[in-house]
Amino acid sequence: MKDMWRKLPLRKKVVVLLTLLCIGLTIGYLPEPYPHVLTKEEIKEAEAVSRSQTEVLAHNVSLTDQAGHSVSIQSLYNKKPVFLYFWMSWSDMAAKELPVLDEMYREQGREVYFVVVCLDRGEAARQQIESAWPYDMPLYFASMETAGIYNVYEVPQWFMIGRGGTILDKHAGSLDRKQLAYSLARSLK
After folding, report:
1. Closest CA to 94 of 175, 31, 19
2. What's a Pfam family this protein contains (predicted)?
3. What mean pLDDT, rounded, does the chain reach?
4. Rounded to the nearest 5 degrees, what angle is found at the Cα of 50, between the Cα atoms of 48 and 54?
5. Which helix (H) or strand (E) holds 101?
6. Residue 1: per-residue pLDDT
7. Contact 84, 161 (CB under 8 A)
8. R_g of the chain computed on alpha carbons
9. Which pLDDT does position 21 carry in this prediction?
10. Any idea where the domains of the chain sit in the sequence?
């Protein structure tokens, strides 16, 4: 073996030594498992913490039902999911959407509270809306202050609130029936 080594040209000796040095360094300095790489359990724990810190809870506001009774939104979403829809009588878009909402209410009104909130001001306007209300779904009234608490600055606008008060979805503008159906189904999971 010594004879073979002596007969090798200097270049080959250097290559062999460098190769052995590289192998030795690789074996001697194998990296430890990365401390910043999370296990599956750690990822699940982090997702749960992240989810709880980013959830937006619905504000507890007081609404007035058709009978004039005060209803706390929290008393509703603590029992089952709530579909909260803000509208005003002058909105053509809302006028087109209310029949669709009433149909969905008849289909899913047992599993989800449909809270259709009119923001019209004045007792006379409210009485007129109430007397002409042709739908099965309940009608509620609220002040513009309540709309401000929910950051409703255009109508119609709706929120899907899960059981317990987490806002699952929010949408302003025209109602997309497929999106609403998806949101309702998601709230029931």
Report:
1. 175
2. AhpC-TSA
3. 87
4. 120
5. helix 92-108
6. 64
7. yes
8. 32
9. 84
10. 57-187
Q: Which of the residues in the chain have pLDDT under 70?
A: 1, 29-37, 49-55
- pLDDT tens digit string along 22-67? 887 777 766 666 656 677 887 777 777 666 555 688 999 999 999 9
Predicted structure pTM score? 0.71
The span from the CA of 139 to the CA of 130, in Å, is 8
Q: Which residue has the tokens 């460098």?
A: 18
* The CATH classification of domain 57-187, taken from the options 3.90.330.10, 3.40.470.10, 3.40.30.10, 3.50.7.10: 3.40.30.10
How far is 144 from 155, CA to CA, in rounded Å? 12
Closest CA to 101 of 92, 113, 114: 114
Omega before 99 within 30 of 0, i.e. cis: no
> Residue 113 corresponds to which amino acid?
Y
CA gap 61, 77 in Å, rounded:
12
Angle at 61 between CA 179 and CA 153, to 5 degrees: 55
Q: Can you tell me whether residue 38 is helix, strand or coil? A: coil
Question: Position 116: which residue type?
Answer: V
CA distance 74 to 60: 5
Cα distance between residue 16 and residue 68, in whole Å = 93
